[in-house]
Each structure stands twice: as C-alpha cells, then as structure tokens.
Amino acid sequence: MIEFRDVTKRFDDGTIAVNGLSLVVEAGTITVFVGPSGCGKTTSLRMVNRMIDPTSGTVLVDGRDVLSVDPPTLRRGIGYVIQQAGLFPHRTVLDNVATVPLLSGWSKAKARSRAAELLELVGLPAELGKRYPVQLSGGQQQRVGVARALAADPPVLLMDEPFSAVDPVVREGLQDELLRLQAELDKTIVFVTHDIDEAVRIGEKVAVFREGGILAQYAPPAELLASPADDFVASFVGKDRGYRSLSFVDPSGVEIGTVKTVSEPAAAGEWQLVVDADGHPQGWVAPDGTVLPGGSLYVVGTPIRGALDAALSSPSGLGVAVDEHGRYAGVVTARQVLDVIESHRRG
Ligand SMILES: Nc1ncnc2c1ncn2[C@@H]1O[C@H](COP(=O)(O)OP(=O)(O)OP(=O)(O)O)[C@@H](O)[C@H]1O
C-alpha cells in the first residue's frame, strides 16, 4: 500500500507542483494519476521512490515513511518505467533486462536466464534478446522497459506515461498486456498518463489532478464517468462520457439472436453472414448479393459498449457476437441493447 498524507512539493523557484495531496493506493491494484500537463502527476509519482522529496507531508510505502529508507534500498522494491523505455543503448535487450539482477549480485548466467523468462512474460520472442534497443519498434522497447522494471520482482511498479510514445493501436495492445500481466503478478501499480481514455481503461482507481497540483477527484472509473465531482472533472473526462461509461455496464440481459450464416456469398433476399470453416465472421452479404465488410465484433460477456458498437457499426444493423476464440456466436440489435441499458438506468 502507498499512502500520501497531506503531501506538498514546492520547488526552489516557488512553483507548487503538488498541493496537500492525500490518497491511498491499495496494494495489488492499478491506480492511475491523470490530468492536464503540469498538474503534478510526475512529481507525485517521483516522491514515492524518492527521486523527489516532499516539502511537507508524508509518503508511506507499506506503512513506512519513505524518508526513513535510503533511496537505493527503497528503489530495489520499486520498479520504474518511463516513456521511451529509457533503455541503455549500448547494451543488448537481454542485458538491459538483466541489469538489476546483476547489480543485486546474481551470476551472469542466472541473471540472463531470468531476463529471458521476463522477455517471454511480456510477450517478446527470445531472439530479440540479442538485439540492441534501436533495433526494436517503439512498442517492443516499451515491453523491454516493463520487463526490466519487473526484473527484481518489486512489489511496487511506478509507470510514467509508459505508452505515450507509441501509436494508438500498439498502445491498446500494451494496455491489454499490462492488464494480463497484472492479473498474474498482482503488483501495486501507479500509472501516470494525460490520456483519460487510457486512465479509465486500465485504472481500478483514477486520481484526476488539476492545475496547481490539486487532487480533483479520486474514484473508480465508472464513478468518475457517472458522477464527476465538479465542472473541471466533467470537462476533463469529456463529452462522450455517457457513451464511454457503457464500458462498465454489465451485459447480462442482452439477448443473442441468430442470422443465416454461409460460407460462400450468394444473393438470397435476406442478410447473411459469411463465416470461414472455423466459424470466424468474414463479412456480410446484403439481400441483393452485395458483399460488405463487417463491423466491430462483440465478445459475449464483455461490457455492453461492445455490443452497442457492434450493432451500430454493422451494415446489416445486426451486431455480430463472437465467443472468446472469435467464432460466430450470434447477433445483437441496437434496439435490444438500448432496452437493456435503459433497464439498468432505471435500476
Ligand atoms: N525541478 C523543478 N523545478 C521547478 N519546477 C518544476 C520542477 N519540476 C517540475 N516543476 C513544475 O512543477 C509542475 C508539475 O510538474 P510535473 O512534471 O509533476 O507535472 P505533470 O502533471 O507530470 O506534467 P506532464 O503531464 O506535462 O508531464 C509544473 O508546473 C512543472 O513546471
């Protein structure tokens, strides 16, 4: 557990970067600090591992005031991941990941075998270990950065805009990967971003900061979207928040219907879904035989936003539902999904 107790940081030039911050980051959760540029997110994060010390107030990690622990000892238990990964350019990927185990006195062989395991854990093929950081894509470098931070198996992980240098598609992949890793590793993660979508996607709790280093709201994502504490949070969270809050609505009640499926397109006077031999949807055949690409797919059991999006983006008006292996499971209509949303709203 990490606790900020009335923490203020005033820099020498008088800038108040963090102003009276009090919050608790529960152990084993991902907590996101989000807010516009310059509102004190990075400064708050760096006070956890003593890259910056507070002017007043106390930061506690597992009940211990961080000021009572010398920085090298403290940092052994706290992994740190930054934007652009911060890898050593002159060392191979494997040696980058092995750095901390080596510093902790492990033999070279043991440190490298641990590093190889970690590369696998973050989804990188073993052969990339021999390359140098410049020979990797931005997304791969970020994965190496995460592997390196995990090398000493720290209970706490600090991540400062770790995915902001990569394109949106790679970024979503990295976010999914982090959620998968977290389900396995159960770390206490503090994640800084200025992207509210990223914050509500990965955070179990989200702290919204405003200018002047003031905490505007600290709540689970669904609550943030449903009841922003004030106008600042409401505008920061954005005008699509009603739609985005559907990411947290339970899909039970959504009925999965059926549609005719075919393996070869042919006009049949009705909408038909083309599926391959394994049952994966390929596209639609309109009643006049025109072949059209499909819309987004709804994975059955996932939040209701996906069901609505599948229906709205489908040329037939029927959203295609698939199982967890991506195989056709049925269809949903926007009308029916909206009825379920309405019934949830009425409670
Ligand atoms: N060493 C420093 N000396 C003086 N002011 C500083 C120093 N470091 C940061 N600041 C100021 O403190 C405020 C908070 O900075 P911080 O980096 O914590 O913000 P942030 O929310 O992480 O911003 P960003 O999203 O742009 O990284 C800013 O006004 C910044 O200019």
Automatic annotation (TrEMBL):
<keyword id="KW-0813">Transport</keyword>
<dbReference type="InterPro" id="IPR003593">
    <property type="entry name" value="AAA+_ATPase"/>
</dbReference>
<dbReference type="GO" id="GO:0016887">
    <property type="term" value="F:ATP hydrolysis activity"/>
</dbReference>
<protein>
    <recommendedName>
        <fullName>ABC-type quaternary amine transporter</fullName>
        <ecNumber>7.6.2.9</ecNumber>
    </recommendedName>
</protein>
<dbReference type="InterPro" id="IPR017871">
    <property type="entry name" value="ABC_transporter-like_CS"/>
</dbReference>
<feature type="domain" description="ABC transporter">
    <location>
        <begin position="2"/>
        <end position="236"/>
    </location>
</feature>
<dbReference type="InterPro" id="IPR027417">
    <property type="entry name" value="P-loop_NTPase"/>
</dbReference>
<comment type="similarity">
    <text>Belongs to the ABC transporter superfamily.</text>
</comment>
<dbReference type="GO" id="GO:0005524">
    <property type="term" value="F:ATP binding"/>
</dbReference>
<keyword id="KW-0547">Nucleotide-binding</keyword>
<dbReference type="InterPro" id="IPR003439">
    <property type="entry name" value="ABC_transporter-like_ATP-bd"/>
</dbReference>
<keyword id="KW-0067">ATP-binding</keyword>
<dbReference type="Pfam" id="PF00005">
    <property type="entry name" value="ABC_tran"/>
</dbReference>
<dbReference type="GO" id="GO:0015418">
    <property type="term" value="F:ABC-type quaternary ammonium compound transporting activity"/>
</dbReference>
